[in-house]
Specification:
The protein has 67 residues and is mainly α. The chain has helices spanning 3-32, 35-62. α1 (3-32) packs antiparallel against α2. The chain crosses the membrane at residues 6-24, 36-59. Keywords: Membrane, Transmembrane, Transmembrane helix.
């Protein structure tokens, strides 16, 4: 397996984990109404979106090398 594919796999897992953690923290915020839970939820989702944007950019940049 090429390092390019391994990097794509790891970034995909990071997107899923960041989004899942953000949703989990959002549910926790609904129950506790603590500001820290809301801040953590929003920042995790933003981080997941940022990683997703990077992943799309990386795939487009490396597409010729993936063949």
């Amino acid at each position: 397996m090429s390092l390019i594919y391994f990097h794509i796999f790891l970034m995909s897992v990071a997107v899923v984990f960041a989004g899942g953690f953000g949703l989990w923290e959002a549910q926790l915020f609904q129950r506790s109404h603590q500001t820290l839970d809301l801040v953590t939820a929003v920042s995790s989702v933003i981080l997941g979106i940022g990683i997703l944007i990077y992943l799309i950019w990386f795939i487009r940049k490396k597409k010729p090398a993936m063949h």
